[in-house]
Please model this.
Amino acid sequence: MSVKHYESFSPAALLESADLDRRTVDLNPAQCFFTQGDTADSVYCLQQGHAKLTVVTQKGKQTTIMLLSPGDFFGEESLTTVAAQRMATATAVNTCTALSIKRGEMLRAMHKNPALADQFLSFLLVRGMRIQADLVDQKLNPSEQRLARALLLMTKRGKTDEPHILVPPVTQETLAEMIGTTRSRVSFFMNRFRDLGLIHYKARIRVHKPRLEAALLDQFAEI
Model:
């Protein structure tokens, strides 16, 4: 499966064609779709807004593992077993709308519609590859490179012909959780990126994608 396959994936069209029984969930900022440890009985597809997945360790440390954009599925652990538990907390970053599909309904539709199963599993496989790459990134690369990569990943839904792409709303605290460093270090790197013309930000971050990609490929050797 290729990245191109993933980029052509259309959850809205897929869900409409699959004749799924689903309900609409509307949340305000900071409200949760579900909480880590809850019983997992539904899978979600984000329609509007942005959300984040966070995990809390046994020692109480919270880590943001992913930002979600419109079109992303989440809560797929519900499809594993009947008694599955939520592995993370899904929280609305801003006003969100999502479709909620019960476990049995999703499994029924996937068995009935092989095309649905194929596209959904392809989506999950690419996500798994990204998570694996994130883990390698955390272990091997310095925090400045991890921040650059995180920002680039958040531009994945921007128009490819636009050099400046607005990323989803995200705080420096959330970025720090995502890359495993402190907010003060993120602030330092963000100011550095801005001075170098790699990003612009006021209320929202706008990435100069070609420049940041070039800097990341060069591993910041010349900046």
Remarks:
- Residues 114-140 form the longest helix (27 residues).
- The helical segments are 3-7, 11-17, 103-112, 114-140, 143-153, 172-179, 183-195, 209-217.
- Confidence is low (pLDDT under 50) at residues 1-8.
- The chain has two domains: 11-109, 143-217.
